[in-house]
C-alpha cells in the first residue's frame, strides 16, 4: 500500500492534495463522508446531549439522514457546524452504504453476457459524450416513505447536469424519477403528474352553472309521410241571402235559407217565423 502525505488543499478548495514518497501528486474530493470519517474518533469524547443547545443528537442524525446540510442543521438548531459533524459519522456512513448498494445493482447484461451495474451503465452513457467521470458526484438521502433518493451531478455544456432515481433497498428496485435519470439508464421517462384545475366554490359562478339542454324534437316518420300526402283543400266562400235575386227567380228559386239568429245558435230556440216570399 502506497503511503500518501497531505500537502494541503487545491486552489479550488474542494480537494485535498496528497503526495507519495516519489513525489507523485494525488487529490481527493472533500466530501461530507470524508469530513464525517475524519471526525468520527471524537464521538467518544463528546457528551450525548448538550443541555445548552436546542437540538438533540437524535434530531441532528434524523435531519442528516433526510439530506439536510451541516450548515442548515446548525443554523436551525442554534449550534455549531462542528457539533453537527461530531454526530454525523454513522449517518454519513449509512448514506454511503446505500449509494454503494445502488451503484452495485445489476441493471442488464452487455453483448458478451457480462453483468452491468447501475454505476457502470451511467458512466458508460456519460463517458462517450466527453463528460469527465472524475467530476461526477453522488448523493442520497432517505424520504418520508423510507425510499432512498439517489442524486447524480455531472458536468455538461450548461454547467451542471442532475439526474435522480428512487432506490428501495429492501426490494433492490431502482426507478428513474426525472427525465435525465431515465435517459441515463435507457428507460422511459416517468409519467408526469397532471395538476388539477381551479374549481370555484360559489354556486352562482358561471363555471358552476349548467347550460339548459335543448331536447331535440322527435318527429315520427309516419307523421311526416302523412303530412306530405295530405293536400290542403282550397277554401270556398259561401254567400247566404234571404231574398232571391232576379237570376234566382228565373231558375225557379222563390226563397233562400234563413240565417239562424243568435238565440237559435246559443239556445236552440227558433225565432218567429216570417212568411216566405211568394
UniProtKB/TrEMBL annotation:
Location of the DUF3071 domain: 1-167
Signal peptide location: none
Biased composition (Basic and acidic residues): 266-278
Region described as Disordered: spans on this chain: 245-278
Top-level taxon in the UniProt lineage: Bacteria
InterPro entries the record matches: DUF3071 (IPR021421), SepH-like (IPR047682)
Name this polypeptide is given: DUF3071 domain-containing protein
Amino acid at each position: 500500500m502506497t503511503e500518501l502525505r497531505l500537502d494541503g488543499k487545491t486552489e479550488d478548495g474542494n480537494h485535498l492534495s496528497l503526495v507519495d514518497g516519489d513525489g507523485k501528486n494525488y487529490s481527493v474530493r472533500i466530501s461530507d463522508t470524508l469530513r464525517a470519517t475524519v471526525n468520527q474518533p471524537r464521538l467518544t469524547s463528546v457528551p450525548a446531549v448538550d443541555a445548552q443547545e436546542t437540538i438533540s443528537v437524535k434530531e441532528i442524525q434524523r435531519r442528516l439522514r433526510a439530506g439536510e446540510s451541516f450548515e442548515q442543521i446548525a443554523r436551525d438548531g442554534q449550534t455549531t457546524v462542528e457539533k453537527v459533524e461530531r454526530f454525523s459519522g454513522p449517518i454519513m456512513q449509512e448514506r454511503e452504504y446505500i449509494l454503494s448498494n445502488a451503484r452495485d445493482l445489476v441493471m442488464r447484461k452487455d453483448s458478451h453476457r457480462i453483468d452491468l451495474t447501475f454505476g457502470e451503465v451511467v458512466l458508460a452513457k456519460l463517458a462517450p459524450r466527453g463528460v469527465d467521470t472524475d467530476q461526477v458526484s453522488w448523493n442520497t438521502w432517505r424520504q418520508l416513505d423510507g425510499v432512498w433518493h439517489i442524486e447524480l451531478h455531472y458536468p455538461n455544456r450548461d454547467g451542471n447536469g442532475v439526474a435522480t432515481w428512487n432506490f428501495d433497498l429492501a426490494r433492490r428496485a431502482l426507478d428513474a424519477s426525472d427525465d435525465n435519470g431515465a435517459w441515463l439508464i435507457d428507460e422511459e421517462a416517468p409519467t408526469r403528474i397532471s395538476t388539477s384545475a381551479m374549481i370555484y366554490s360559489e354556486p352562482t359562478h358561471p363555471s358552476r352553472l349548467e347550460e339548459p339542454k335543448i331536447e331535440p324534437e322527435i318527429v315520427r316518420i309516419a307523421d311526416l309521410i302523412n303530412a306530405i300526402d295530405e293536400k290542403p283543400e282550397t277554401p270556398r266562400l259561401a254567400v247566404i241571402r234571404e231574398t232571391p235575386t232576379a237570376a234566382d227567380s228565373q231558375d225557379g228559386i222563390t226563397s233562400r235559407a234563413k240565417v239562424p239568429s243568435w238565440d237559435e245558435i246559443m239556445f236552440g230556440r227558433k225565432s218567429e217565423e216570417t212568411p216566405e216570399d211568394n
